[in-house]
Design goal:
about 210 residues, five-stranded mixed beta sheet
Length: about 210
């Protein structure tokens, strides 16, 4: 589901498998809870997968946890210093203002996380460096790469780089994106800020912002 904030859209995703539902990201405050309350049965929701810690991806956690206090929350452990507020993101002076207790999260490489990933039919794809632990999720059944801030799109659907002001290392982020799109060249790409893109590798290689990198 996409929430249009006028400045930019913010997407969160629901993956359904055998009657169970899994969220990917929470969006900003209240977004994930709204999705659960209006479109899902809360008993169906079995896990929350997070791409990384920026507020437009985890800002809905407090309200979602009020509704689903025991919901497993999974994230790459390279994001732990930023989730907890122990460190600021690269190129940032201060840690994020909204911090969390790490005991509430499960690392994606843990046995518990692997079981929840299997139940959801998702494969995590490590994809720095919009953030150090940025993770995409591949849904093989539908051949869709849920790509977060790997890239963005314009409102007309044109592929664009991730937002410069919030990207830790743009050259590395673009290299990661290009490498991934070579692997998933026939896959539909769904980004957080924008829409879905088919033939994303071809689109990326012909864009001036990539050619001039």
């Amino acid at each position: 589901m996409t929430f249009d904030l006028l400045i930019f859209p913010v997407s969160i995703w629901v993956v359904e498998n055998k009657g169970d539902c899994f969220l990917i990201d929470t969006g900003m405050s209240g977004m994930a809870r709204y999705v659960v309350e209006h479109y899902l049965n809360s008993n169906q929701v079995k896990g929350l997968f997070l791409m990384y810690r920026h507020s437009d991806h985890v800002g809905g956690i407090p309200q979602l946890r009020e509704l689903l206090p025991d919901l497993p929350m999974l994230i790459d452990n390279r994001e732990f210093p930023y989730i907890s507020g122990r460190k600021p993101y690269p190129r940032r002076e201060k840690p994020e203002s909204l911090t969390f207790n790490l005991s509430e999260f499960t690392a994606l490489d843990s046995l518990q996380a692997k079981e929840v990933l299997k139940q959801a039919g998702l494969i995590p794809v490590f994809s720095p460096d919009h953030s150090p632990g940025h993770t995409c999720y591949y849904h093989a059944e539908d051949d869709v790469l849920i790509a977060g801030d790997l890239l963005t799109t314009s409102r007309l659907g044109h592929l664009k780089p991730p937002m410069k002001a919030f990207t830790a290392d743009m050259p590395q982020a673009l290299k990661t994106a290009h490498d991934l799109l070579q692997t998933y060249s026939q896959t539909l790409i769904s980004v957080c800020h924008g829409g879905e893109v088919a033939n994303a590798l071809e689109e990326m290689e012909k864009r001036k912002w990539y050619q001039k990198k």
